[in-house]
């Protein structure tokens, strides 16, 4: 319970940044990503796997540098910008592979963990920044609200739903406290709150998009949470970090956002395809 | 020497497919990719790492399915298509991570190797198909010629250059036979042949692009070759496969194309940016 309240206190200043919008949101996502990547890579040490911090962090910086260039300095043609992200992926993965050239010191797992971190912790949450750039004007308000609402409503309602109604374990081997009842409550709450938010603040023509966003986001924020649990179990750690003493690190707080950000970005992209 | 000649015999029918162009090239790249991915994943078995064949192969199929849809069935707006590739990456990596949900049977390395294979063996060579779609009309001939010329000229001239002039080892720990002299000969040959091909068959206004293509392609085809050697050393195998008995598999023949395809695609993209 206390963790949930403390999470809330961490999230509160974030809400102000989302209200400020644009560069504030992107700056926040950038900082969270860099800290999260650091925690993720550090988690591998127990397994004697040593991803490259410099490659991972420079790669994330490059991703946001592309954002700054294409959004503020020199807008390319619409067909060009996403290719820059593909080029970014190519260069990042290439450098991770070249990292193995010190063949006596480094292993395949070091390179593969670096790549996984770049895509999972770097590229996935970056979709929150992409969503802000692409849909903020079309939606009238920041679509990052949807990402946060779905991630945190699911988390809170799954907790209380499980607390009051929970009878059947969801997947005891990965996360022993989660229940099927809690999971359903979380997903329903996410759907209802996203739909309500869309109805109140966004274009009602796209209600179906907001309902689907809430539903898929509710399901995948739980997958995000469980995926992080799997990583931690395999790494042999309890929490990714210790940012709030006793209450985990950045990655523990944002594990579900990692999956909901791209999920919601692509759902909105499909619905708004004709307006892009 | 015999390996080189046999390689040539494998490549010869490919040249006919490149002449036929369009779907023939893409079909060939698809088949090579699927076989290559199979070999790559199999290589991990020695290390007790077990990537998911079905996820990797379905992911590659999905990539070419997107190509068919966007190129032949329903062309989206230019801004939309590359986002489909980003969505593909998200879905593929997501499924690789969910693969770990059978937490007792599967390890982080299984998921990370699956991801690495999808990006390195699946997505990288796919740029040959992308280059064909994007630049065949602009260039007048298939840009896949440049990818093949650079990869195979480098390979052949590095071999003969090293054979006749080789004195200094390039990186004995990774590949004991390679020499600095051979490497320089290969890079120069790649530059000269790409420039000559561009001069003879393509728009001479873009000569600088073809020279750079040859130069960067020459360097990175060697990195591709060495990267494959590192994987094989770490996996504890001599060759990836046994397609031509005694002369290695698909991945042994195409290891340099994996890096040159995206390299050349992005160089052309930068030079032709204003025409896209």
Structural notes for this entry:
2 copies of one chain form a homodimer. By secondary structure, the first copy, chain A, is mainly α. Helices cover 74% and strands 3% of the residues of chain A. Chain A contains 10 helices and 2 strands; from the N terminus they run ααααααββαααα. In chain A, helix 5 (108-139) packs across helix 10, helix 6 (144-165) runs antiparallel to helix 7 (180-201) and helix 6 (144-165) packs across helix 8 (207-235). Chain A is globular, with a radius of gyration of 19 Å. The mean pLDDT of chain A is 91.
Mean pLDDT of chain A: 91
Global geometry of chain A: globular
Count of beta strands of chain A: 2
Number of helix segments of chain A? 10
The separation of the N and C termini of chain A measures 43 Å
Report the helical percentage of chain A.
Answer: over 70%
Order of the strands making up the biggest sheet of chain A = 1-2
Approximate strand percentage of chain A: under 5%
What structural class should be given to the helix and strand makeup of chain A? mainly alpha
The topology string of helices and strands of chain A comes to HHHHHHEEHHHH
Rg of chain A, rounded, reads 19 Å
Largest beta-sheet details of chain A: 2 strands, antiparallel
Features:
homodimer, 276 residues, mainly alpha, two-stranded antiparallel ribbon, 10 helices
Which helices and strands occur, and which strands form pairs?
Two copies of one chain form a homodimer.
Chain A (H helix, E strand, L loop, with lengths): L1 H19 L2 H21 L9 H21 L7 H18 L9 H32 L4 H22 L3 E3 L3 E5 H22 L5 H29 L14 H5 L2 H15 L5
Antiparallel strand pairs in A: 1-2
Helix pairs in contact in A: 1-2, 2-3, 2-5, 3-4, 3-5, 4-5, 5-10, 6-7, 6-8, 6-10, 7-8, 8-10
